[in-house]
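Try this one yourself first.
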């Protein structure tokens, strides 16, 4: 059901410093910051030959990333995103298998302009999973 790894998301306490580290130290191609108000984050994508890294920074005081950084002040891996061909079919299959979909269960539009859903980390070995329709 799941396709390729689309990205690994890392919450960071300083978006500019993290972006510079990937660009200057690791020599990666780093995109521009992009505000995602519906998700309460500012994101920066780092392009790699086989996937992407998504840097996440809180956008607003009620951002879910703010709480993550309160618990992990140095930042850390927040979630992994996998591609699916049909997000509704994937959601329905996962729910039938007992997986919990976060929020209303209806897809939202993600940072790539495509429908996304998140799956409860307690159902996937403590890892928050994002599904993105390709």
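Now uncover the answer:
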């Amino acid at each position: 059901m799941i396709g390729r790894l689309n990205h690994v998301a890392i919450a960071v306490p300083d978006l500019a410093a993290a972006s510079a580290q990937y660009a200057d130290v690791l020599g990666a191609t780093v995109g521009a910051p992009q505000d995602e108000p519906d998700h309460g984050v500012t994101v920066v994508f780092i392009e790699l030959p086989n996937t992407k890294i998504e840097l996440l920074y809180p956008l607003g005081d009620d951002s879910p990333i703010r709480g993550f950084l309160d618990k992990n002040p140095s930042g850390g891996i927040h979630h992994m995103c996998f591609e699916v061909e049909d997000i509704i079919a994937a959601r329905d299959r996962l729910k039938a298998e007992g997986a919990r979909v976060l929020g209303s269960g209806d897809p939202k539009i993600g940072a790539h302009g495509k429908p996304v859903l998140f799956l409860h980390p307690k159902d996937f070995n403590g890892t928050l999973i994002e599904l993105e329709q390709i």
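Discussion: The radius of gyration is 15 Å. The chain has one domain: 5-133.
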